[in-house]
Amino acid sequence: MKSPFPGMDPYLEQYWREVHHRLIAYAGDNLQDQLPAGLRARIEQRVFLELEEGAKRPVVPDVSVVEHPRRRGSPVATAAGVAVAEPVLIHLDEVEVTEGYLEIVDVRSGNRVVTVIEFLSPTNKVPGEGQEKYLTKQRDVIAAAASLAEIDLTRTGCRVFSVPRGLIPPSVRTTYEICVRRAWNRWIGEMYRAPLRERLPVIPIPLRQTDADLPLDLQALIDLCYEHGRYEDTDYRAEPVPPLEPEDAAWADQLLRAQGRR
């Protein structure tokens, strides 16, 4: 069964970690078959720790030295003989997050990175280590004279494209957006619209300046994710998270009712 939405399905954001991995793999396979001689698509990863907000639980240390049991809350004597209060240990969950991205490398020039393709995650768009690492990578790619394609198919957080938000015309500010920066024309940012109510676009992926762009069909990738992820059991009676804008919510409600999903 296909998604009931003609373009990006906003309900897929709740499965984003899995969808993200699938998008990277499918995009890599798609581009690999089109690449000219000497270029290869490679999946790379960055790892960071994400703190689960509000996630706390009592823990015991991995190694402990105990002479005899004592009552909880009883004072603890230090080497100086001064009694200090016994703490309650609180564990703050830190989850190791692995994010993938695509690199197109030139194997004939020592695996020089030609193009980086990023499918942005909510962790890139909210303050924290994930965003800091992404912005560092973004700056490094541009400084290294490689092309960069940033594909944002999520609605959580703020856009962090390499093109400043204030320079993007309102007509291009759609539910989802794509930004492409070419290595040989780094002062120009190419913005692509991706409204909720329309099919996702086919975007150009730049390679070397002497190569033709490769087409990447974003809608075909999302359709594969939906099909192979078996997301047809998604509860479309509930509202997506984050919620849609009022006009889009009314449109989505009509669309889902017409297809018997509500």
Strand portion: 25-35%
Low-confidence residue ranges: 53-70
Shape type: globular
Main sheet properties: 6 strands, mixed
Strand order of the largest sheet: 1-4-5-6-7-8
The structural class is alpha+beta
What is the count of distinct domains?
A: 1
Please give the share of residues in helix: 10-25%
> Termini distance?
16 Å
Q: What's the total number of strands?
A: 10
> Tally the helices: what do you get?
5
Q: Would you tell me the overall average pLDDT?
A: 87
Summarize this structure as a short list of keywords or feature phrases:
10 strands; 23% helix; alpha+beta; two-stranded antiparallel sheet; single chain; 262 residues
Task: Describe the structure in brief.
This protein is of the alpha+beta class and 262 residues long. The chain has helices at 16-32, 122-125, 129-143, 218-229, 246-258; strands at 39-58, 76-77, 83-84, 90-106, 112-119, 147-152, 176-181, 189-194, 202-205, 214-217. It has a six-stranded mixed sheet with strand order 1-4-5-6-7-8, covered by helices on one side. The protein has a two-stranded antiparallel sheet with strand order 2-3. It has a two-stranded antiparallel ribbon with strand order 9-10.
Can you put this structure into words, describing what you see?
It contains five helices and ten strands; from the N terminus they run αβββββααβββββαα. By secondary structure, it is an alpha+beta fold. The chain has one domain. The strands form three sheets. A six-stranded mixed beta sheet has the order 1-4-5-6-7-8, covered by helices on one side. The protein has a two-stranded antiparallel sheet with strand order 2-3. The chain has a two-stranded antiparallel ribbon with strand order 9-10. The chain is globular and about 65 Å long. The model is unreliable at 53-70 (pLDDT under 50).
